Amino acid sequence: MVKAFALLAAFVTLACAKPHVARDMLLHDRRDAAPRGFVKSGPAPADSEIKLRLALKQTDIEGLQSALIDVSTPKSANYGNHLSKEEVEEYVAPKAESVDAVNAWLSENGLTAATLSPAGDWLGFTTTVSKANELFDADFSTFTHTATGVSSIRTLEYSIPAVLKGHLDLVHPTTSFSTPKQSKNVISLPVKVSNITEDASSSCSSSITPACVQSLYGIPTTLATQTNNQLAVAGFIDQYANSADLKTFLKDFRKDLPSTNTFTLQTLDGGSNPQSSSQAGVEADLDVQYTVGLASGVPTVFVSVGDSYQDGDLEGFLDIVNYLLAESTVPTVMTTSYGENESDMSIDLAVKLCNAYAQLGARGTSVLFASGDGGVSGSQSQDCDTFVPTFPSGCPYLTSVGATTGVNPETAASLSAGGFSNYFGVPDWQSDAVSGYLDQLGDTNSGLYNASGRGYPDVAALGQSVEIVYQGKTTGVDGTSCASPMFASVVALLNDKLIAAGQSPLGFLNPFLYSTGASALNDITDGNNPGCNTDGFSATEGWDPVTGLGSPNFAALLEAVGL
Question: Which keywords are on file for this protein (predicted)?
Answer without folding.
Answer: Hydrolase, Protease
